[in-house]
Write a structure and sequence with these properties.
The protein has 216 residues and is mainly beta. Helix content is 8%, strand content 57%. It holds the Pfam family Gcw_chp.
């Protein structure tokens, strides 16, 4: 096991212990969602089919860890993500640093370096926020090809605007997309997503999603 996988394994072990023996001051939150498609970084991964997802998170003193699961995409099937991180504020700047591991139980051979095993497909994610502006950087540290994925966001009232794109070792796979979302209320939202580079001129995706917090 290489150093990075050892670090990831240690992180999940610590997260598991936290979730099993969370201190009284820790908070546990959960939610369930349904969407008209699985929209991921500008792509419709579910080929137009609805997607159901849910998550559970334990948090305290800025640290958090949890599990997110989805009915999955059209190629890889069911998806389960494990994550752990730390969020804080430095003056007006919000900072969120986390490690995510993506697992696809029963994934077909050859999919993102056999991403059906823990540690095979992972990212370190850094999120920065200043007022209505946000910047998120995703660094692939295991699985797939070496890449960075970036998002630049701006929120105003119930609208959010997101510009996303990749910086990959494989220049032919780089792309960009632009999303506009409207939150009708805390549960119901609508998103329009459009590829904006000449190599990915797919039709605009339209997604309706409904989420519901679950009392613990």
């Amino acid at each position: 096991m290489n150093k990075m996988k050892t670090l990831l394994a240690a992180g999940v072990a610590a997260a598991s212990m936290t979730m099993v023996a969370a201190p009284a001051s820790a908070e546990v939150s959960a939610s369930a969602s349904v969407a008209s498609m699985y929209l991921w970084r500008g792509f419709d991964l579910s080929d137009g089919s609805p997607a159901v997802s849910g998550d559970i998170t334990v948090s305290g003193a800025g640290f958090y860890a949890g599990v997110w699961g989805s009915s999955g995409d059209d190629t890889a099937g069911q998806e389960v993500d494990y994550y752990a991180g730390y969020a804080t504020e430095v003056g007006a700047l919000s900072v969120d640093l986390s490690v995510w591991n993506y697992v696809y139980p029963g994934a077909s051979a050859g999919f993102v370096d056999n991403g059906d095993t823990y540690g095979d497909l992972s990212e370190i994610i850094l999120g920065l926020g200043l007022g209505p502006v946000s910047l998120t950087i995703y660094d692939n540290i295991a699985g797939a090809n070496g890449y960075f994925y970036y998002t630049l966001g701006y929120d105003v009232a119930q609208f959010s605007f997101t510009l996303g794109g990749t910086d990959s070792d494989d220049e032919d796979s780089n792309y960009a997309h632009f999303d506009v979302s409207y939150a009708y209320n805390d549960n119901l939202s609508f998103t329009f997503s459009q590829m904006i580079d000449e190599d990915n001129d797919d039709d605009m995706n339209f997604v309706v999603s409904y989420s519901l917090p679950i009392s613990m």
